[in-house]
Amino acid sequence: MKSDRRAVSSPPLHSRRRFLYLAAGTAGLGAAGLAFGGCGSEEENETPPQLQSLFFPSFVLAAGIEQRIPFGLIDQGIPIKESSTEFRVTIRRGDTVISEQPVVARIVAHDHPAGDGAEPHEHADLLRYFAVRATLGDPGIYDLDLTFEGRTASLPFQVFDRDDVIVPLPGEPLPFLRFPTFEDPMGMDPICTRFGGPCPLHDQTINSALDTGKPLALLVATPAYCQTAYCGPVLDVLLELRPEFPNVEFLHAEVYLNPNEVDGNLLDERLQPSPTVEDLALPFEPTLFLVRPDRTIVDRIDNVFDNTELREGLQNL
After folding, report:
1. CA distance 72 to 54
2. What CATH number corresponds to the domain at position 145?
3. How many domains are there within the chain?
4. Is residue 42 within 8 Å of 75, Cβ to Cβ?
């Protein structure tokens, strides 16, 4: 069974902790691995546009099933902040075009307590991100191309055989997972790192939530220890939309078991993954599972999402 393969192939706890830490770096704007192409008319001192992957590169994207591919766009060394521009994106394998579609810039904007005594504020200047969805039939290397002001930026990425992907995929059942709650924190310290105090989404287990007969939105994220400007606000985005969906259960799982013990040092050897992250063998965060009452995963939204993407996902449950 696939769950057995996950158990065998999941990285040991020590390396998984480092995966979680380093994955944040690969999703950050300063990470290596940027790939781009430019037209021949550019001046030598002009930096070509660059695409930044906002997804974990290994054993996450699966062949034969629709996948969401988030990325950022950098021009002249600066992430773009234009919010109204529509671009054309092409996904190809070699010279074969697999998908062509429009894409618009998205932004994670919301109000929330800053955690430092400041008044609630909007992240109106947060970095824009893009997300495309495509079904890629075969494992292998693909290229995502985007044309920006007459120049083409390309992002190579790898798609894996579905059986080699560790993280549960849409269409599969959500595994049975340990889930710390306020009543039974399972050693979590803290159980929630949201600024201003713990969020209310730790009041029941996953099984209890699904036993209500309602679908479930399960977010795995660590607001205080997110390493990029993209992923930090996703819990607050989820909380803001929660009142719109009274027929959906919402839960939040933290990523680390004992960050207080190590004073927030994510490379400390004593740091442990939370029970939920350990059971999922999750090598990155954040991720959102949208699950039907029968445990079928309808969608998985990785790394970053805005309220528009989230609302669409919740409406499809």
Report:
1. 7
2. 2.60.40.1930
3. 1
4. no
Given this model, what pLDDT does residue 27 score? 42
Note the pLDDT of residue 230: 58
Query: What pTM value is reported for the model?
Result: 0.82
Q: Which two tokens stand for residue 314?
A: 């919740």
- Work out the number of other CB atoms within 10 angstroms of the CB of residue 153: 24
**Terminus-to-terminus CA distance in the chain, angstroms?**
26
Q: Are 227 and 24 in contact (CB under 8 A)?
A: yes
* CB-based contact 105:89 (threshold 8 Å): no
For residue 17, is it within any domain? no
Nearest to 276 by CA among 162, 160, 178: 178
Residue 117 included in any domain: yes
CB burial of residue 285 (10 Å; 0-12, 13-18, 19+):
buried
Residue 311 is assigned to a structural domain of this protein: no
Q: Sign of torsion, CA 240 241 243 249?
A: negative
What are the beta bridge partners of residue 132? 69
**What range defines the domain where residue 122 resides?**
29-164
Whole-angstrom distance, CA of residue 234 vs CA of residue 225: 13
Burial class (CB in 10 A: 0-12, 13-18, 19+), 213: exposed
Mean pLDDT of 30-40: 33
Distances, alpha carbon 109 to alpha carbons 44, 69, 104, 192, in Å: 36, 20, 15, 21
Residue 176 within any structural domain of the chain: no
Least-confidence region, from 117-121, 237-241, 306-310: 117-121
SS3 state at 234:
helix
